[in-house]
């Protein structure tokens, strides 16, 4: 099947933005105004908390409070392996009950249910939190053996618990999903998200379900949304990479993996994902070597065990593969994916009788389970007994939970034919799929989509195009066919051209118009983009963001008046969410209508926990230089999220512009800051208040650190000052080679001053400390620009692909494309970045390159 075939639908001071952005999470001393794509929407930022606690532990390794805080932050971030280890350290040293809860929860979230149960099997009486967590574990144990009713009974008392209710609801949702009650499962997940509790967990659950159901596109969109809420979330990044691999987009998957590795040095999942990528590239032995150090960790979860077993099997170690799967099935008898894999392995080895025994035992535990019924039907079909297979499937209850091919294909009239075709294509036999379609003689859209895939696989590209053209004419809202048709054409406008054909054929779905608007703008056809954006806004299935698309295009083109007119023409809806109101006003302020935006913003009552909307309100006041109101909003937000370091810093800066003494008092009373960061922030307060000379004096007395050097860099003006700073950073780096943050700062400043050899040397050290970090790659591209434009372009593209929403990376890539005389692509890169963030002024010079018409 063709790669990517779809089954479904800082201040701008020369190069300073690049070198500041290059830190990419290593150092964060300033926060720009929030956008939906750039800020966390949660009240507390667990990633900032993680960095703060890590710094505290570095200062005092015996600080058990910091270690416990780090364990909790890691738990929120989904880094369960690290959370487990940190909580265990606290337990060993202090017998802390709360640490034991974190330890048990971390084990549970890794799928180690029995270990979690043992962790709570202690002599002292459990607290109410402990009892609630134990009920979740009991439910998980029942779920693992397929006893869904027992799981629901165990979890019922906990669904209202203040701490563990979201976990309980997720377990309940999984139980309902497993028995086929999808509406109840979705309702529970929606309740979690609506309540704002553990919503990332709920979204992750949704994304994993989509991935398991064979819908990588939906999984990717959900996971990208999670990453927007919590930058660097490794669970979300893992899902995106798996989804990209499902679509055959290996290069993109590797780029995302490099980004993930940069923020998760101690986590086993990047090694697992790299193993998956190597296997997808046909490098089975390399994949096995890559995951060799994490084999035990892999066996703790279904996906890891299946992957490891697959590697062993392909390398000729079938007995080891079987042992891994049987061990996993013993630990969790209800693991449907492992049942499927084990029976498949036994069938392939000619041991159908043993596979039958596995199925018989599984059905005795989970009688009539729809997924097992489907699996048995698949086995019958594989033996050529299609009639018996279809008869078995027909007994499934209406709405039963069906996974794998059935979720991919949907309940179409000819889904059995399409399923067989899909299986044939995946097995490398597209010709059989073509023959099935011809024998069926149907115009069913899924069959036709599979037929086109099979034709393309056999090299019959023109025939595949004809099939898809007819399909799009018949079903113009069928996005999968549109994407597949575009994939058969060369050139950057293929998707736009195909979406245009779908519109002409009568497409009515907002998502078709929305996609056309975005892609048409990127390729430079602004008129078509605006027309499609208008249609998206008017479509029956339009969403709130569709109403803003026209204004966003105007903003990206620098047309403030037109953007403002479009925004003010949007009627307000009754009971419109505050987040939507604020985002529209934020766009209005970007369009130059600060007074109107402020007037309306001042009337908004900000609900509790509306962190993102609050940050956007603060940005509206900041743009109008209303520091008093900005500080007021930030003070309110800070009360609900006292541990959010970036929010605290922004509040202090806004306060310093109005009242330096008050800001200094607030800084002095802020807990949890390292000595170096507190000192650097103190200097920044002086700078914000206009007392730069005092800040310089204070900085001279401080212990060197990345935070101090970054603050010095922000006020360095003359070349002589910058050269002196460069020399001091170089001496510090020689004495402290492991400080990657300083290496990145040093490299950026060296590039600005034209000292490319020194920059490249520093970046080599940074790359060793942070392999694949896009900020390092970006600066390395700049350092090698004169030596090798081809190499610089490769590095810049890798950085850009890892974080296309980062304006500094888009700027570097666009500038190198211009130097290589690819102005059209440079324009596309710039326009895509400007559509995401119209404040990216450094990209404006590239915006008009390659415009059409």
Automatic annotation (TrEMBL):
Question: Where are its TM segments located?
Answer: none
User: By its UniProt entry, which Pfam families does this protein fall under?
Assistant: TPR_16 (PF13432), TPR_19 (PF14559)
Which Gene3D superfamilies does the protein's record reference?
Tetratricopeptide repeat domain
Question: Which InterPro entries does the record cross-reference, listed alphabetically?
Answer: TPR-like_helical_dom_sf, TPR_rpt
Iron found in the keyword field: no
Q: Is Signal one of the keywords UniProt gives this record?
A: yes
Q: Which residues form the signal peptide?
A: 1-34
Q: What keywords tag this UniProt record?
A: Signal
Q: What is this protein called?
A: PEP-CTERM system TPR-repeat protein PrsT
């Amino acid at each position: 099947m063709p790669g990517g075939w779809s089954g479904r639908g800082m201040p701008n001071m020369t190069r300073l933005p690049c070198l500041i952005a290059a830190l990419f999470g290593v150092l964060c001393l300033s926060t720009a105004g929030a956008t939906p794509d750039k800020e966390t929407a949660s009240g507390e930022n667990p990633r900032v908390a993680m960095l703060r606690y890590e710094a505290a532990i570095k200062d005092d390794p015996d600080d058990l409070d910091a270690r416990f805080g780090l364990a909790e932050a890691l738990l929120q971030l989904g880094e369960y392996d690290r959370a487990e280890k940190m909580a265990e350290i606290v337990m060993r040293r202090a017998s802390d009950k709360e640490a034991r809860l974190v330890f048990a929860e971390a084990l549970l979230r890794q799928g180690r249910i029995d270990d979690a149960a043992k962790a709570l099997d202690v002599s002292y009486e459990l607290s109410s939190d402990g009892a609630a967590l134990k009920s979740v574990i009991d439910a998980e144990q029942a779920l693992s053996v397929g006893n869904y009713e027992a799981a629901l009974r165990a979890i019922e008392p906990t669904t209202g618990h203040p701490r563990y209710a979201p976990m309980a609801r997720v377990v309940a949702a999984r139980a309902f999903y497993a028995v086929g009650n999808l509406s109840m499962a979705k309702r529970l997940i929606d309740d979690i998200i609506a309540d704002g509790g553990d919503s990332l967990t709920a979204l992750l659950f949704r994304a994993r379900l989509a991935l398991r159901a064979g819908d990588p596109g939906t999984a990717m969109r959900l996971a990208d949304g999670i990453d927007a809420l919590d930058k660097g979330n490794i669970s979300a990044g893992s899902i995106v990479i798996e989804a990209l691999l499902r679509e055959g987009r290996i290069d993109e998957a590797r780029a995302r993996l490099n980004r993930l590795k940069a923020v998760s040095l101690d986590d086993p999942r990047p090694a697992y994902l790299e193993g998956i990528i190597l296997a997808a590239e046909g490098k089975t032995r390399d994949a096995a070597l890559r995951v060799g150090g994490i084999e035990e960790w892999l066996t703790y979860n279904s996906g890891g065990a299946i992957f490891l077993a697959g590697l062993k099997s392909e390398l000729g170690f079938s007995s080891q593969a079987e042992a891994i799967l049987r061990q996993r099935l013993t630990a969790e008898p209800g693991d449907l994916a492992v049942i499927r894999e084990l029976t498949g392995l036994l069938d392939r080895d000619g041991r159908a009788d043993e596979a039958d025994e596995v199925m018989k035992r599984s059905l005795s535990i989970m009688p009539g389970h729809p997924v097992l019924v489907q699996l048995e039907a698949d086995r019958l079909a594989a033996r050529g007994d299609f009639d018996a297979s279809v008869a078995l499937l027909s007994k499934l209850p209406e709405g039963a939970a069906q996974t794998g091919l059935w979720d991919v294909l949907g309940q179409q009239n000819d889904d059995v034919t399409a399923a067989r075709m899909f299986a044939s294509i995946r097995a490398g036999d597209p010709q059989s799929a073509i023959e099935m379609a011809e024998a069926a003689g149907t115009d069913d859209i899924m069959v036709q989509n599979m037929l086109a895939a099979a034709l393309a696989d056999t090299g019959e590209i023109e025939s595949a195009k004809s099939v898809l053209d007819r399909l799009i004419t018949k079903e113009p809202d069928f996005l999968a066919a549109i994407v597949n048709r575009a994939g058969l054409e060369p050139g950057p406008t293929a998707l736009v051209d195909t979406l245009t054909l779908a519109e002409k054929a009568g497409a009515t779905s907002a998502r078709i118009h929305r996609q056309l608007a975005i892609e048409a703008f990127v390729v430079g056809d602004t008129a078509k983009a605006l027309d499609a954006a208008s249609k998206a806004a008017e479509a029956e299935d339009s969403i709130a963001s569709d109403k803003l698309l026209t204004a966003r295009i105007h903003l990206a083109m620098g047309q403030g008046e037109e953007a403002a007119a479009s925004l003010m023409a949007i009627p307000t809806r009754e009971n419109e969410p505050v987040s939507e109101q604020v985002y529209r006003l934020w766009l209005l302020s970007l369009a130059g209508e600060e007074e109107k935006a402020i007037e309306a913003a001042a009337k908004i009552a900000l609900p509790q926990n509306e962190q993102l909307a609050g940050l956007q309100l603060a940005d509206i006041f900041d743009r109008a230089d209303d520091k008093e109101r900005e500080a007021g909003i930030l003070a309110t937000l800070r009360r609900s999220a006292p541990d959010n370091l970036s929010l605290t810093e922004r509040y202090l800066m806004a306060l310093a512009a109005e009242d330096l003494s008050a800001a200094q008092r607030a800084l002095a009373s802020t807990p949890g800051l390292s000595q170096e960061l507190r000192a650097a922030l103190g200097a920044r307060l002086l700078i914000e208040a206009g007392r730069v000379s005092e800040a310089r004096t204070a900085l001279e007395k401080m212990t060197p650190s990345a935070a101090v050097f970054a603050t010095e860099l922000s006020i360095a003006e003359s070349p002589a000052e910058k050269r002196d700073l460069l020399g001091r950073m170089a001496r510090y780096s020689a004495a402290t080679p492991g400080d990657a943050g300083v290496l990145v700062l040093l490299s950026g400043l060296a590039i600005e001053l034209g000292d490319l050899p020194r920059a490249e040397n520093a970046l080599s050290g940074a790359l060793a400390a942070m392999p694949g970090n896009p900020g390092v790659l970006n600066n390395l591209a700049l350092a090698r620009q004169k030596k090798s434009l081809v190499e610089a372009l490769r590095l810049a593209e890798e950085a850009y692909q890892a974080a296309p929403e980062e304006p500094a990376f888009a700027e570097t890539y666009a500038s190198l494309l211009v130097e290589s005389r690819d102005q059209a692509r440079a324009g596309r890169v710039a326009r895509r970045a400007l559509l995401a963030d119209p404040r990216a002024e450094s990209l404006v010079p590239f915006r008009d390159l390659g415009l059409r018409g």
